[in-house]
UniProtKB/TrEMBL annotation, chains A, B:
Pathway the protein acts in: One-carbon metabolism; tetrahydrofolate interconversion
UniProt record similarity statement: Belongs to the tetrahydrofolate dehydrogenase/cyclohydrolase family.
UniProt protein name: Tetrahydrofolate dehydrogenase/cyclohydrolase
Organism: Trema orientale (Charcoal tree)
Classification via Gene3D superfamilies: Leucine Dehydrogenase, chain A, domain 1, NAD(P)-binding Rossmann-like Domain
Amino acid sequence: MASSSPSDHKATIIDGKAIAQTVRSEIADEVRHLSQQYGKVPGLAVVIVGNRKDSQSYVSMKRKACAEVGIKSFDLNLPEDVSQAELIAKVHELNANPDVHGILVQLPLPKHINEEKVLSEISIEKDVDGFHPLNIGKLAMKGRHPLFLPCTPKSKKRLLNIDSAVKLEIYMFCWKSSCFNHDHFLQGCLELLSRSGISIRGKKAVVVGRSNIVGLPVSLLLLKEDATVTIVHSHSSEPEKTVREADIVIAAAGQPMMIKGSWIKPGAAVIDVGTNAVDDQTRKSGYRLVGDVDFHEACKVAGWITPVPGGVGPMTVAMLLKNTLEGAKSTIVQ
Amino acid sequence: MASSSPSDHKATIIDGKAIAQTVRSEIADEVRHLSQQYGKVPGLAVVIVGNRKDSQSYVSMKRKACAEVGIKSFDLNLPEDVSQAELIAKVHELNANPDVHGILVQLPLPKHINEEKVLSEISIEKDVDGFHPLNIGKLAMKGRHPLFLPCTPKSKKRLLNIDSAVKLEIYMFCWKSSCFNHDHFLQGCLELLSRSGISIRGKKAVVVGRSNIVGLPVSLLLLKEDATVTIVHSHSSEPEKTVREADIVIAAAGQPMMIKGSWIKPGAAVIDVGTNAVDDQTRKSGYRLVGDVDFHEACKVAGWITPVPGGVGPMTVAMLLKNTLEGAKSTIVQ
């Protein structure tokens, strides 16, 4: 084993923050071009119901991100007790507004409102949150399976003293499936691979974890990109053996540092989707975020690896902006 | 290699016809019990629009199968030029009819009718064709991707001189995705495994083929049953190596006898979903049906194998009957 001398090796770190910044600059360029050429800019409407602090913060981050790239924000804050009919009427108004190219209804909605019904009222061309057919499948499944998991009170409390640099990722971690859009997150995974020059076609990809919200859809996306995809989960025998055969590893198990360096095939690309809080008394907050991969060990073996935080997380809002831009281009550029 | 002496080995043939017959007998027993205990029997309504010969024949087979197990048939034959509104009104009537527990609208519908719209009008409790959430996801995807492939004129012509024993399977082959329900077909695959005493949990399953209508949904079903699932396809490198690691192989590539004996792990369970017509001048029809697996070679290595025809095919109608029974039980037995 000493012959391979893995300790000398150092994986290329896939810097999600830097890549997201590149994506945003490209979007800003395209928006500027649209504005100069056609006198129009993309518009993104975000509808919030009620006063959930987490929704408000997340939406304000979205608004800021829009402003940075020149996308116009249309924000609608409706009271907690808004009726479903009123909310749907507002969605219809946004559907009809030619300056709005993307509509996003922030989840979760109050209990008296049927989320599925409301989301289905968003016109398909403006459904930036549901751009991908997979999303619709997931949405359709929602009525039958618990798709949205509640945020744990513990992690909510921890939000009180957060480190601003990883704010968004902590939000995403806490909300899990509640308010942030997983499709953008998943698109982010693929974008990180392609921006790092890693081709997917024909490669062996192993996805660790089979959640409806991450593991399954990311598997389908990889399959669409022509990878040979294996899904490994808690009932798999010899998961480490299967992972060790992968050219591309997507870690989405939700288990802190579960995937050890010895699980990784030398030179593999490792995308760590996991975001787990572990106790850390050296931090003011009392914890830190780690991925599903043992980063330090994996660095010595992998060819590429995403850090947590700073990997997939920062790509999420960038992908939302990209979807809004694409939606706008398809109507503005005829 | 001679040491393993595979030529002495003979796989257990999974007899789909016999298993389907067992399932049907069990259904008949349960229907008799419902009738005696509650004075009610399950009812299945089949709606056909127009005079497509293939739809008519398939539906008449369904009707016969219902009669055999004591399920009451409610058949509606609507003219080719029925309006969408009239068709939907009929669906609503069936939704309201307490004697109808399953509603099946035979596809394809004429071009002037929006299939997705009509299918979405079937009340969820009676949607025997869409019992599984996966189906809804597929349905949702339909608007964006071509899900239903047309039957080739060649195979249609060949239907004229068919061998009655494999009639249903030839129909299914010709229609591919047009009129028969793939969900029942897929449920059939899993039922064949469980009836043969083959457990899925923790096993390595390899699905060859990634079609929206068979490969993908069967992968998701296997995953739900806790298999470690790998999907292999035309862009996979070394597919034979991957298949050789599988405890369970689902062949759904649509390539006649593509999977050779040497691809199979000794003792593996092989479910052959492929149904391909190959020229055979020794037959009156001029062709015969073969699977995606080289049956004779695979028999010498596999532990279990389904023949084509006579494997998965016969299970399809049995699973439809089973779904109808389950639907009826949930309303009759309170």
